[in-house]
Design goal:
By secondary structure, the chain is of the alpha/beta class. The protein has twelve helices and 17 strands. The strands form four sheets. Strands 2-1-5-4-3 form a five-stranded antiparallel sheet. The protein has a five-stranded mixed sheet with strand order 7-9-10-12-11, covered by helices on one side. A five-stranded parallel sheet has the order 14-13-15-16-17, sandwiched between helices.
Length: about 550
């Protein structure tokens, strides 16, 4: 720092120099104009101010301020500010990056989960939840939305599976109905044609009448079941309710089922535990139908030599009727569906038992109309089954009334014996004895040599010792169906009968059934019931393609 005082004429009056500072020309230059003024010079700031006395300028003062310290301080301040600014920028970048990850990463994760869900249609995927902020709320809302969509999708899949299962059940039921209705028609129609032709002797006529009667009753029961189910579905079942003693209904049902049981060597044991008279308010015909259905089902599914047991007892304010058998039992998976309409444990072409699968459904509906309930129990396959009917007892006994009798309705190609099949060997395969007898008689009346077999295994045994010119086989048979039989026949050599012409004579009459039979190896397909004359013509045509077989 330096200072100087100058007179009015510019002469230096006094000078101050700090430290070892030398005289600075910026202070001592007399030619410099009068003040006031300032300028930067010599690394400092020179300030000049005039000295005025009584309005007269008597001199001036010049001061030189050293700005080095301030410059250094200013530079340090600038450096500090620059450093602080740089630190602020770095901190801002780091903070923005962290904030970006905190905000954008959950959103990007959410977008990725949404993309995967859209592409894979997998609504079980969930986004990883974050904190409790707005992004966490967004993720939780997204997951809740997926949960609702998954539940609806599962419900839709379940409904679709149920619809597909119902559709398959309907198709299977229609095929079974076609088979069960057509099967009894075959012997009926064939025997009628032969009776009209007058070619049967007394014994054959008696067999024909028995077969017609038996199959007509079988078909009538099938039609009755269909009509009952139709009434159940449309809600048109009506009960003629009156007070009846349950013991008499049970005994009547037992007597109705006894012939079928005796034919299979099955014992029906009737145990009436309650010795007193048990009166219920019911429709006696419908209730007897319930007991008959349960007994006939037990007899059908019980093997030869088995046992069916029926018990009747009073339990508190209701009565229980239980039918227990030692038959094939019920699979645990099928037990919940045993009373469903159109459901059968076996519906393939190899099923061992006939029927429409409607009997137990009708039982449940009739029992429920009487204010009761029915249940089925079984320990599994081969362990038998028990069906228990619970009915409320009548609170007050009333005088009996006369039974009301409802009116009921009474339940053409000509055929003539010929020699068109003389010398032709025909093997007939069918599990229905009436059908076998009928076909044997029809072909025999036209000169054919006929062998019969009641199943695929028996047919293969006949083929092993007897070479036929034609094979006539049913499709739906227990253990092995007609498709399995024709596959084994076609696997034989020509000398063993592997090229024997074959006719599928079956009650499965759909287009797909015909296509499947022809694809399996049959040359022709005919639907039951068949006209005897048409059967003879088809067998004759089959043998004409290959000529008589070369027999050993």
């Amino acid at each position: 720092m330096a200072a100087a005082i100058f007179a009015a004429n510019g002469a230096r009056f006094a000078t101050y120099l700090r430290g070892d500072r030398r005289d600075d020309p910026a202070i001592g230059d007399p030619s410099t104009r009068h003040g006031p003024w300032y300028r930067f010079a010599a690394g400092g700031l020179v300030v000049c101010e005039d000295v005025v006395l009584d309005r007269e300028r008597v001199g001036s003062v010049r001061i030189l301020s050293d700005l080095g310290e301030r410059e250094a301080r200013f530079k340090s301040y600038v450096g500090i500010v620059a450093l602080a600014f740089a630190i602020a920028i770095v901190a801002g970048v780091l903070l923005s990056s962290r904030l970006q990850r905190a905000i954008s990463d959950p959103i990007l994760h959410l977008v990725d989960r949404a993309r995967v869900v859209t592409e894979e249609k997998n609504y079980a995927i969930r986004a990883t939840p974050t904190g409790g902020d707005e992004l966490g709320l967004l993720v939780r809302t997204f997951n809740e939305m997926l949960t609702q969509i998954q539940a609806r999708d599962t419900a839709l899949e379940g409904a679709r599976d149920e619809a597909e299962a119902a559709n398959r059940t309907k198709d299977e039921f229609l095929a079974v109905v076609s088979h069960e209705l057509r099967t009894p028609l075959t012997p009926i129609l064939a025997w009628i044609r032969m009776l009209r032709a007058g070619s049967l002797d007394t014994a054959a006529t008696a067999r024909a009448l028995d077969a017609i009667d038996r199959n007509a009753h079988s078909q009538a029961r099938l039609v009755d079941d269909l009509l009952d189910v139709s009434r159940i579905i449309t809600g048109k079942v009506r009960l003629d309710v009156q007070q009846v003693e349950l013991r008499s209904l049970v005994e009547a049902a037992v007597e109705s089922a006894r012939p079928a049981a005796d034919a299979k060597g099955i014992r029906i044991i009737q145990m009436v535990i309650d010795p007193g008279a048990i009166v219920v308010s019911s429709d006696p015909q419908r209730l007897q139908q319930v007991f008959w259905n349960l007994l006939s089902s037990a007899v059908k599914f019980t093997p030869r030599g088995g046992r069916v047991q029926l018990s009747l007892q009073r339990v508190n304010s209701h009565v229980e009727v239980a039918v227990t058998d030692t038959g094939q039992g019920i699979k645990p998976a099928f037990l919940p569906h045993v009373f469903d309409r159109f459901r059968q444990a076996e519906s393939a072409t190899t099923r061992a038992h006939g029927g429409l699968g409607l009997g137990l459904a009708i039982v449940r509906h009739i029992v429920e109309l009487h204010g009761g309930r029915v249940r089925g129990d079984s320990d599994g396959e081969g362990r038998g089954a028990t069906f228990t009917v619970e009915l409320p007892t009548a609170a007050v006994r009333t005088a009996p009334r006369e039974d009301r009798v409802h009116p009921t309705a009474d339940s053409a190609v000509p055929f003539a014996p010929s020699t068109v099949l003389r010398g032709v060997r025909v093997l007939v395969v069918d599990d229905d004895r009436d059908t076998l007898d009928t076909l044997w008689m029809v072909l025999k009346e036209c000169g054919a040599e006929v062998q019969t077999a009641d199943g695929a295994a028996a047919a293969l045994e006949v083929l092993d010792r007897w070479r036929p010119d034609a094979l006539v086989s049913d499709i739906g048979m227990p253990d092995e169906d007609g498709y399995s039989l024709i596959a084994k026949v076609r696997a034989l050599s020509r000398e063993q009968g592997g090229q024997t012409p074959a006719l599928a004579l079956t009650a499965y009459a759909r287009t797909e059934d015909r296509v499947r039979a022809l694809s399996a190896g049959f040359q022709m397909h005919m639907a039951k019931p068949v006209e005897p004359a048409e059967l003879v013509a088809v067998v004759s045509t089959l043998t004409s393609w290959t000529g008589p077989a070369q027999r050993a």
